[in-house]
Design a protein that fits this description.
This protein is of the alpha+beta class. The chain has one domain: Nucleotidyltransferase, domain 5 (2-Layer Sandwich), CATH 3.30.420. It contains five helices and four strands, in the order E-E-H-E-H-H-E-H-H. Strand 1 and strand 2 form a beta hairpin.
Length: 154
């Protein structure tokens, strides 16, 4: 116990580098959300692996809407576009500086600010678990609320 006249000290934990990034896809009409967390910076190779391995197979073309982030627009992704097209995956890019048009941004905001009530974590494992739980909570809410939402007209 620290005497009242002595200054109390709290050990500082340097948060730099303790970050979890995620690649995610959301299809509100189908009530689908998929997210993969990474405990490191993402690369174009991560994006391509996600597109090739995590997207559900479909008989119709799938259009992925991407913003102008470097991992979305780099040489690796540009070179992979013909191969993705053969798999039925087409990339559509939003105009630069238009996050309001990116439909995944509200999902990230909801998970970050509402589904993760604790904002500080002392371990990577705790942070990663909180991110995974946040996406899972949002996924369940999306599926449960889907029956009450209006659907697009034909």
């Amino acid at each position: 116990m620290v005497p009242p006249e002595q200054r109390k000290r709290v050990k500082y934990e340097y948060p730099q580098g303790r970050r979890v990034n995620a690649l995610a896809t959301c299809e509100p009409q189908a009530r689908c959300l998929d997210a993969v967390p990474f405990e490191r910076a993402l690369t174009s190779d991560d994006l391509l692996a996600y597109l090739r391995n995590r997207l559900p197979t479909a008989d119709v073309p799938r259009v992925m809407v991407l913003d102008d982030a470097g991992i979305h627009t780099g040489r690796v992704v540009k070179a992979a576009r013909p191969g993705l097209a053969k798999l039925g995956i087409y990339l559509y890019y939003l105009p630069p500086y238009s996050p309001e048009l990116n439909r995944i941004e509200p999902v990230f905001k909801q998970v970050k600010h509402h589904e993760m009530p604790t904002r500080s974590f002392t371990t990577w494992a705790a942070l990663r678990k909180a991110v995974e739980d946040g996406f899972e909570t949002y996924r369940r809410r999306l599926q449960a609320n889907g029956d009450n939402e209006l659907r697009l007209a034909a």
